[in-house]
Amino acid sequence: MRRRHGANRSHHRGCTLDTMAKWKYLISMSNPTETLDALGLLCPLPVLKARKRLKSMPAGAVLRVLADDPAAIIDVPHYCAESGHRLLSQEDSDGHQVYFIQKSG
Fold first, then answer.
1. According to the model, what pLDDT value does residue 21 have?
2. Residue 67: beta bridge partners?
3. Catalytic status, residue 43
4. Mean pLDDT in consecutive groups of 10 residues from the start of the chain, 105 residues
5. Which candidate among 44, 56, 90, 100 keeps its CA 20 to 30 Å from the CA of 68?
6. How far is 103 from 83, CA to CA, in rounded Å?
7. Which of 37, 31, 29, 95 is nearest to 66 (CA)?
8. Coil, helix or strand for 87?
9. Distance between CA atoms of 85 and 30, rounded to whole angstroms?
10. Domain locations along the chain
């Protein structure tokens, strides 16, 4: 039986990575340039601090935001949609949320 050229490559269409693994791969390739620790801050501070930090970052840069405010689950994606920034990932980790936001250009 003949193999198709490139059949063993991970970027091939037959790739079996799940969606979360794909996002983690893309995020790791984009190397977040900054991390914002908003743990312990309540609404609206995590979003306000993210907005301020993103203003000083170049277009295409990725900001990792750590937040434990329950309202951030709604506020961060809403902020990204309204401001035009791209929310690359949103996940739970050890009692807090981790957001990866790519600044629009």
1. 64
2. 38, 97
3. yes
4. 44 53 61 89 97 95 96 97 95 94 92
5. 56
6. 9
7. 37
8. strand
9. 15
10. 19-102
**Dihedral angle sign, alpha carbons of residues 28, 84, 76, 57:** positive
- Active-site entry in 39, 43, 45, 87: 43
Give me Rg for the CA atoms of the chain: 17
Tokens 């809403």, located at residue: 78
Predicted TM-score of the model (pTM): 0.73
C-alpha triplet 10, 16, 20: angle, nearest 5°? 95
Given the structure tokens 């791969």, which residue do they identify? Answer: 25
**C-beta of residue 39 within 8 angstroms of C-beta of residue 67:** yes
19-102 CATH pick, 1.10.490.10, 3.40.109.10, 3.40.605.10, 3.30.110.40: 3.30.110.40
Token reading at 103: 């600044």
Residue 38 to residue 6: CA distance in whole angstroms: 44
